[in-house]
Amino acid sequence: MGCGADRPDYAISGLWTGHFRNDLFPLPADRNWRAFWGVFATYLRRAPPDDGEGRSYNLVQRTAYLTVIFVLFPLVIWTGLAMSPAFDSAVPAAVAALGGRQSARTLHFFVSGFLVFFLAVHVAMVVLAGFRSRMRAMITGRVVVLPERP
Amino acid sequence: MSNISRRKLITAGLAATAGVSGLTAAARLGRRYGLIPPDHVGIYGPGETLTYAAQRLLTTHSLAREFPRSMISKTPFANETPPPNEAFKRHQAAGFSDWRLSVDGMVDRPASLSLSELKVLPVHSQITEVACEEGWSYIAEWIGTPLIEVLNAAGLLPQARYIVYFSIDRDWWESIDMADALHPQTFLTWGMNDGDLPVSFGGPLRLRVPRQLGYKSVKYITRITATDTLKGFGKGLGSASPESGYAWYAGI
User: Could you report the predicted ipTM of this complex, rounded to two decimals?
Assistant: First the structure.
């Protein structure tokens, strides 16, 4: 799961190039629950995606990515460090703030569970969206939007 | 696809040279300042080395968190091991009156101390947490003789870099670097929660290393050795733990 805070190069380049700001933060018109549930409803109805979907992330995807990059990864690292006795001796406040070692351990368990869930959904979506074209887009940066299948 | 230009080839060559010389310099600096653990070999070696080097640069002098008396665990988990051998059973039957700790290796005055001789040295106590790699943890008060007092009494030589310590069961041994050996909270522990250290918790003598996971705190200690190299001990990986897949440095 190489993205977010465990990949400082990714986080820094994302901030530097404006990738997070331009591609991940929800568009102003989308910053409300209605838009959010709208996208969800599209999934539930299994409606075909509109043309823009191939080129940018929709609101649910953006929310999921931002949560993973800025919430779950920092949390999993923090709770993981909190289980290190040497880290505890150096920065005791960071462990105490989580409620001690055992609370950190419980949080770590659930956060890693969420990350595994995200990974499973993420990979499933890539497969459903067309494994080869998505992999090509990820590696080369070129998006080829295939014509609708009949 | 563009062809590889001469410029690109030269840049890549320079970058590779810089990378290799950078790594060589890092390895030399690491050895010089003691940032390379004895188990730096194998697939986990680079990870072990990064962890240990980072910890030694950042946490060499940090103190394990001490807790108020009210937070002492009511039912600490002993993780009981059966008495290691017949010799231990004989000691146990005799109330550990003949238990001895030998101090040897790179010291001026090798010694063999009885428990009562050990208790003549300055006594300290701490309320700290034991954390096992299995996940469980508990807080207890530990009473004992700081290892540094024993090493000073024996006249530790300045070239010593590691302290190796052995259980009465000779297959159970560990070692720590001087940052942990001379650390004020590293105790030869003989008391727990205002009583003698119970056998189930490592009595009569356990070396507690509170800034590392529980498996570094070996029970039933009979021997400590000061050395400048871990090559001659076991497979030379530092302790019995790396030989069975655990990290030598368990501050994690």
Answer: 0.85
Using DSSP, state whether B3 is helix, strand or coil. Answer: coil
CA A40 to chain centre: 16
For A89, the closest of B137, B211, B250 (CB atoms) is B211
Q: What is the pLDDT of residues A101-147, one digit of tens each?
A: 999 999 999 999 999 999 999 889 888 888 888 888 878 877 666 65
For residue B230, what is the DSSP state? S
* Cβ-count burial A111-126 (b if 16+ within 10 Å, e if not): bbeebeebeeeeeeee
Helices (H), ranges, B37-177? 45-58, 86-93, 115-118, 147-154
From chain B, the residues in CB contact with A85 under 8 A are: 64, 129, 131, 210-213, 250-252
- Cβ contacts (< 8 Å) between A77 and chain B: which residues? none
| SS3 state of residue B207 | strand
Separation CA B226–CA B219 (nearest Å): 19
Q: What is the CB neighbour count within 10 angstroms for residue B107?
A: 20
